[in-house]
């Protein structure tokens, strides 16, 4: 039994069960944290110590490493030190030390020479020092803090010579021990730079036995050496405890091992210093580049100013005497002076960091600087291009606005004109003649409709603004066959007569009435005589701008908004912000609802509401669907007009569609399925399909909702009969002769096949 470990009858008893050993260890860790027996420390003496001081020391300087051997040695009653088996590497070093000293020192040098991590290096130094001096334990303290407030901080404390597991970083942080400068043996060595070799620690007044009392470990011999750099400055202290065999003092040869530690730590410090210097340079470079970015991107409008800033920053950042900036331009562009001299005065500009950065970071600095300068110049050039483009657009819009808006003479003439009554104009009847009024008369009739509906007074619409707006709306319709200003007026007249004669004025709000009337007049603004499918097929600018869903309807609405936003055209100017927003929403719904695709989606709901009797005038969703149906009914209102008018409108629609078919054939190389001019004699059959499939179901549902719409239903029935007669006559003619002359094509039977040239009966 080791004489250094006294026995006591009150000590812990040996346990043969591994389970009991684990339980005792857990219990001892929770209460005393590796407390071991010492005959020199009584229970009362221990209890008199401050518990907080004890916990701090135990937390900072636990003498037992986390190995099974030391845990068992702390728990066994016999106080027998369990043998510590060194790793193969440590055992190999011990054998080399005994057999081949040269190889041994070469192994030590290789072990620590390539290590640049200070923590790993400290651990390796302590292990090697333990081997060199045959010490039981070693500790390493490094100097930290400013010169006036230096302390010694342990990187590793009480490392055993036989340990094989390096403590984790979390353990190192929790077990860190700090020794004041000049206090104790370690502080004395650090302050004076001397080596202290003590054979009996308890005989030296500088020795503190607090750790021994808390851990039960007996310190005898101590070798404490200062680690100095090449300038003789102390950078650390290494302490070896209890030379083996126990009781043997350290020799003078043991004191020489500190040199390797000095050189290794110095090398690491140099590397760390270089890394810190590089990091500092990088941070300063980043700071300078950030200031460059902030400075350059503050000025994005003037190319000359930003180039001057770049040159000033280059002088400061690169520590150069002169710099110039060359911009790439078209060789045909006119030659103009930019800067007639170099910028050389950098003294007035604040310098960001020392000159050595120019030598350490020239390439990186220039590359980063050039990137940011390029971004600044490019953004400024793009801004100038955008500015020029905006100026061109502004001029173009101004020109378009001048040509797209009415003149002041027209406004003054209309404003002074006498507006006939609706009865005089004939606009208060369902059977209105669409071709009875000329362009100017349609403008005065539109004014009369707004006046009789009372929206001018209710919404405080300026009369001159209303006149200007109507004239401009008329001017923004193209001269196409059907979707022109006359069609827009006829749709609005149909809406007017439905609101007044059919008494929808009693159930619709004033805002809804105004939105519906404005929507009717604007629902086909800037129509090009082609449908949405043609826009999608050709990939027109409208299709790219608005997509393939309700392309033209979105364009009509945006065009209406553009007119309203033109100076002197806003008829909604006196509405509040909330009323204006609601009005624009109603207007958008009204115009978009003229898209037949959207109509097919909504009419199913409307038919269900009406046929089931569930339609509610108080339900906003029902009212929105009704407004959509009213817009479509007015848009298709020509089918309810007297036969002569309805037939003429149908021919205009067909003419416009055939023109689209001609364009599809010439531009897209497609044979149009419906809009084929060679099928124009099928117009009666097409009209019957149009009336039966789209028009008649809509007017029947509206008639069920409002019986005052009966004249419209009568008109559509009368027109259908006329088309049916034409279709029957056409079919009788076809049955009389299998070959029917059809202008430039011949339809054969029911298959619709045709010859490529005009033929007469009996040929072929």
UniProtKB/TrEMBL annotation:
Pfam families: GAF (PF01590), PDEase_I (PF00233). GO terms for biological process: signal transduction. AMP binds at residues 483-487, 524, 635, 687. Binds 2 divalent metal cations per subunit. Site 1 may preferentially bind zinc ions, while site 2 has a preference for magnesium and/or manganese ions. It is an enzyme of class 3 (hydrolase). The active site is at residue 483. Zn(2+) 1 binds at residues 487, 523-524, 635. Its EC number is 3.1.4.-. The chain crosses the membrane at residues 356-377. This is Phosphodiesterase. It comes from Astatotilapia calliptera (Eastern happy). The lineage of its organism: Eukaryota, Metazoa, Chordata, Craniata, Vertebrata.
